Amino acid sequence: MSPRTLRRHLGAEATSYQAVLDELRCDLAREYLATGLKPKEISHLLGYRHTNAFRLAFKAWTGQTPGQFSGN
What we know:
mainly alpha; elongated
């Protein structure tokens, strides 16, 4: 599928590639936190270069820091 076709299909669903990626990363981050993985490990698994970038993204997605979410 071409990038243009993908954008058109995602637009028809009122979403974007970035929104789908963010939703997937958020879901995975929650699962990883529930298993006890540390934010540094999770940021690496989700493709972030810096742990702080993951922490900021997680806070934007959930309104909580990873530590608040996992109860630490």
